[in-house]
Recover the amino acids of this structure.
């Protein structure tokens, strides 16, 4: 059932013992489906939101071409176990004159995707804060694919003592390893083919760590070499950081303790489409 | 009963049909008491917090000398109708590494007190957001004395769709009109005497508006003249603004419609103590 207004959300919250929430920008894929299924398992009722949030797009970014199909989204969400699809008008989220923002400050907010998308995460943390206040779920679900986003939202929820558990679910991939993204639909046949190098690069790094400790800089070079081999793919960043808080890493241990898991992260333009991906290099 | 941890707050929330919350920085006076009494009338349970929030003090401000007396505060709060006094350690509010902030942007955040206290309101909106997430009250109570704070918090709650009613209660004054403030305790006998000029100035403006419409600039001059007559009192600002959103006012109508109520606001140093006060000039 599609709902549009906050009163309906309040009624759902009031009547539900445990409520799971999956915020999305729509054009759902199997990655979203995995979040909804997880929410279905863990909660009595599940709300999925579909809202393409303008404040997380920069002035020259792709909000105009961001793919949309609410009928298909509704069918997929319900089929995966959603009870309600919250599909608000922009004025419901941002009433006229709204000018309050939630920002995570510090190094974590100025690295990786934040470098090429300066106000992106301010838009993300603000809209997620708003949606959490509206839905008041017990648990909210995000994908590991947007690793920096997931960590920032966990940090926001912790720092502001928000009464919600933030659950991060594994990346879902295509048959050839490409991470699912609503933006994959924009890739031409040749771009789609070359895009798998992102996964391969991450896999290269992971394989090298299996046998012995590796310098992070060496692994980054291996990954860059793999990606630079593909003429339609242009690197934005390739980095290795601590999975826990995205702090810098110099050596990736083959067998780390559980607090020192390393994460390789890539972002690249494939034609006109910006894709991101990441992989834990030394998980147990 | 004094409580220190968030688990206790969650239990209170879980067991209470309606919960009122009065956040304070302690050293309670009759202004706080009026908020607690109001909360008592409107809710099944009442939580008062006492937390001197470091992030709302500037580097050269008076956090070190801010008056403290938790035993007295507890007795006054309970006597006024509080069920619980939440008296958290600083690390409960701001765990190590916390760096998430809630800010209201726009003109309202750059005028009046924000000019002489640049990061003050960022600290206020952040700590109030945190406390509201911890306590999860149905209603939260603030005093009109801190007019800009009250409007910013109402705006934050509205913009972020926080599930709480923000209730603003009238200023409580001493016999001679001085607005109650925890900082009044710092005034010397002579400063205390001269400080009443702030109230008198506001009253001057209000009296002038009773008979006919007045230019805001003329009223400001009358108020400044009254205050400048007192050698121990140094004006920070004297302004007249719309009560609703603190937007500028040029003419104060003797008989406005309800959306155009004007508010006169003053801030001044009385010796080393900074005091603020305000008055609606043309309420029905």
């Amino acid at each position: 059932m599609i709902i549009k207004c906050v009163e309906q959300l309040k009624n759902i919250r009031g009547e539900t013992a445990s409520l799971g929430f999956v915020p999305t920008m729509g054009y759902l894929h199997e990655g979203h489906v995995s979040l909804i299924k997880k929410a279905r398992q863990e909660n009595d009722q599940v709300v999925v939101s579909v809202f393409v949030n303008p404040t997380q797009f920069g002035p020259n970014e792709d909000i105009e071409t961001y793919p949309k199909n609410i009928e298909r989204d509704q069918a997929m969400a319900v089929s995966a176990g959603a009870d309600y699809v919250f599909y608000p008008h922009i004025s419901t989220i941002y009433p006229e004159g709204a000018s309050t923002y939630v920002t995570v400050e510090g190094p974590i907010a100025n690295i990786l995707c934040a470098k090429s998308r300066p106000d992106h995460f301010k838009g993300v943390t603000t809209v997620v804060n708003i949606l959490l206040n509206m839905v008041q779920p017990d648990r909210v679900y995000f994908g590991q694919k947007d690793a920096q986003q997931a960590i920032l939202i966990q940090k926001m929820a912790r720092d502001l003592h928000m009464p919600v558990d933030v659950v991060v679910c594994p990346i879902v991939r295509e048959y050839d390893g490409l991470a699912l993204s609503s933006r994959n639909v924009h890739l031409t046949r040749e771009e789609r083919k070359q895009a798998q190098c992102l996964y391969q690069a991450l896999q290269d790094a992971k394989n090298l760590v299996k046998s012995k400790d590796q310098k992070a800089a060496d692994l980054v070079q291996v990954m860059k070499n793999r990606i630079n081999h593909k003429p339609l793919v242009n690197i934005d960043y390739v980095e290795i950081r601590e999975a826990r808080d995205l702090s810098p890493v110099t050596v990736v241990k083959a067998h780390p303790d559980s607090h020192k898991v390393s994460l390789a992260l890539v972002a690249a333009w494939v034609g006109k489409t910006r894709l991101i991906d990441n992989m834990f290099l030394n998980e147990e």
